[in-house]
């Protein structure tokens, strides 16, 4: 018994002894440092904001009306939700349907597919301020929508469209062809195969893309300042201006008058983002299980 | 009675000619086996019988395939053809949904939505695929959670649920253990009373055990086609003999 144990231990030693190889040792240390650094940065940022923000959290920060006394973030919070819903309802169906067309209907490797793909890739590399300027010129000025939630929503949906398209395409490609074959083999047509077999299997992947997109919407400032403006109230209609939380924070910190409140707002923003992440990965898990 | 009549069938993948002048007549309510070395075109011919090769880009066909006298490459409804000529694949490919929904998928596709009717179809199909007793208590569970052999019999049930006339089976047991294999072989032999079955197999014994007729393929051609007994006891062609005696790659 004891001898066999010994050999096992010896074997273990042999297996781990490769860490004595200097290159792999250095690599291990580097990897470990990088991981530690990443975690540390995250904790420092969150910790710093919590430290500066939590003492400044107060009830009047959540008043429905904004004024310079309470510096309420409630309108901005509500605007963020409206803006997210607006952009997502425009971009998600459009993005999913174009991705379905590209992967399931268009001939593989056709010119059109290539052109659309290159266009989408280029679009996703453009800085968001450019989208903002385009939105200003087109939606705000040319279409006479003025600074409005609608102009902001459309601008953001153009911005996230390539992201939705790409993630949906990847999700569709990941669906095994054997599912498609099985469906066609039973006499199902293309439409039925795509919508009842392929799309449901791709849902978790598509949802992951939507989550990323929501993250970008919630965090966006540059594209919104020029399109939905910076009015700090809940808009009467989609044609009124309204600022989201990120724009709100940008305004507070650039004015420099309410830095304490800006930190408190940051706490709420961070909690919102973390909450969003949790909810979406939870639903994604639920859907992929069922 | 002849079910399929294949005349002078040539099939190209792009410029590669995968089938050369294939002539075969497949009898109804018999089991026909396709044998031959890897890459000789067995799956290709099988897929051209329900036009699954339509899905492959650059695939082109010359010649004629008649199903009950009707040209399947003529002006026909492909979905209806695939309903009549069902297919079971080499690797079990149940859909990621419940066992019940897997079997009900085909009937629903073809317009059956009544719950009572679907329940009945699901039960008979699973019974006919000899898997009802194993699965009847977990019809609502995911089909991905059952064993490979059960999945393959589920796929057979799924194919039976649309009431096909022909079943094409591409090496249906190659991914399975001996017990599951023998269950499926028994099943196939039972099914032949009601269906015409064409099966691709690499397993000589399997062909001998279950098939009535056997076609031997080599490099895209049908070298010999005869009753299974004749093919395995006194083949007329030298290549066939070499292959079945194992002297051949
Ligand atoms: N989609 C395709 N595109 C191009 N060539 C193909 C395609 N499918 C098959 N082939 C080629 O056609 C020939 C016949 O292939 P097939 O799959 O019919 O062989 P098989 O007899 O079924 O072989 P196996 O026993 O290995 O399954 C092979 O040379 C193969 O490389
Ligand atoms: Mg094959």
Automatic annotation (TrEMBL), chain A:
Residues 77-280 form the ABC transmembrane type-1 domain. SUPFAM superfamilies: MetI-like. Keywords: Cell membrane, Membrane, Transmembrane, Transmembrane helix, Transport. The chain crosses the membrane at residues 25-51, 71-103, 115-139, 145-164, 194-218, 262-280. GO terms for cellular component: plasma membrane. It comes from the Bacteria. It is found in: Cell membrane. The keyword Membrane applies. GO terms for biological process: phosphate ion transmembrane transport. It holds the Pfam family BPD_transp_1. GO terms for molecular function: phosphate transmembrane transporter activity. InterPro entries: MetI-like (IPR000515), MetI-like_sf (IPR035906), Phosphate_PstA (IPR005672). CDD domains: TM_PBP2. It is a multi-pass membrane protein. Belongs to the binding-protein-dependent transport system permease family. CysTW subfamily. PANTHER family: PHOSPHATE TRANSPORT SYSTEM PERMEASE PROTEIN PSTA-RELATED. This is Phosphate transport system permease protein PstA. It comes from Flexilinea flocculi.
From TrEMBL, chain B:
One of its GO terms (biological process) is phosphate ion transmembrane transport. It is a peripheral membrane protein. The keyword ATP-binding applies. One of its GO terms (cellular component) is plasma membrane. One of its GO terms (molecular function) is ATP hydrolysis activity. It is found in: Cell inner membrane. Residues 4-244 form the ABC transporter domain. Coiled coil: none annotated. Pfam families: ABC_tran. Keywords: ATP-binding, Cell membrane, Membrane, Nucleotide-binding, Phosphate transport, Translocase, Transport. Part of the ABC transporter complex PstSACB involved in phosphate import. Responsible for energy coupling to the transport system. PANTHER family: ABC TRANSPORTER I FAMILY MEMBER 17. This is Phosphate ABC transporter, ATP-binding protein. It comes from Flexilinea flocculi.
